[in-house]
Amino acid sequence: MDKLKVAVIGCGSIAIHRHLPEYQANPFVEIVAVCDIKEERAQLTGSKYNAQAYTDYKQAITDSKADLVSVCLPNYLHAPVSVFAAEQGKHVLCEKPMATSEEEAQQMIEASNNAGKKLMIAHNQRFVPSHEKAKQLIANGEIGKVYSFRTTFGHGGPEGWSIDGKESWFFRKEEAFIGALGDLGVHKADMIRYILGTEFSEVAAMIEASAKENSDVDDQAVTILRSENGIIGTLTASWAYGAGEDNSTVIYGEKGMLRLEDDPAYGLIATYTDGSKVNYELGQIQTNDSGGQTSSGVVDHFVDSVRNDTKPLIDGEEGYKSLQIILAALEANKTKKNISL
């Protein structure tokens, strides 16, 4: 089989630190095009990866004859660029949150379905070894009936990660639409759905924008989720964890509890009601602070799904369900009422 040709749209941090290195490391892919509205950035990235540089995403997608398109753009552009790529017969890997509304998400799904092409949303937390192991333990009944959970994702903010620092689009509502909830919270919404194997039916939320100057999006959020089968828990997203990143989850069940990414030595610790304890040394979760995330598993899974014509683990429908939780949290905060899904 010939190598799959990929066009990466957007040459910001997520493309530079994750998508492009992962495509380059995949033996079944050739990077043929990169695109960024800033020509110098596009040219520098193109030179590094021996790819044609563009400033117009439509030209990059069509002229390059790419098979795959990675959408690494500000949130408000996810849907229009993904829809265009699908309409041109391309398989699409889109960054999270997949869209800024339910309508946009449905447009993306419909466009890919009509084209008969793959749509995958880049929720990398499903591929974290501790999360995969926890899902397996819960499915096997290791901790019995699950009652509750708490999950959080926070760091000092995108100014320490984004290529544009404090001037990043992350802080501008017209481009980002949503702040920490969309940057980090949607990851945990997707992860907890996956691990517990359940859908959520009710959302409450309190959201603040008090930690960042020159920003008009949320930077702290605490949500309460209720699942269809009666599990309740909290999901927190924050750009105010200045002392270090926290990407931990604790799940409480009738026979014990699971602590995920909550210990410096062990990715997963299972503690049981009979007093026993199992420490799982699975390798630490990749973080921006510890040298980047260049082997997330997202790109390899996307490429495999195209090569083998299989359904991506996080297809458009899965991305949509996780987005719905975050949209409901925004509505709950606005109305001061619990929102039913």
UniProtKB/TrEMBL annotation:
Entries under Gene3D superfamilies matching the protein: Dihydrodipicolinate Reductase, domain 2, NAD(P)-binding Rossmann-like Domain
Domain Gfo/Idh/MocA-like oxidoreductase N-terminal: residue ranges: 4-123
Limits of the GFO/IDH/MocA-like oxidoreductase domain: 132-259
Single GO term (MF): nucleotide binding
PANTHER family given in the database record: BILIVERDIN REDUCTASE A
Name of protein: Gfo/Idh/MocA family oxidoreductase
Species of origin: Gracilibacillus salitolerans
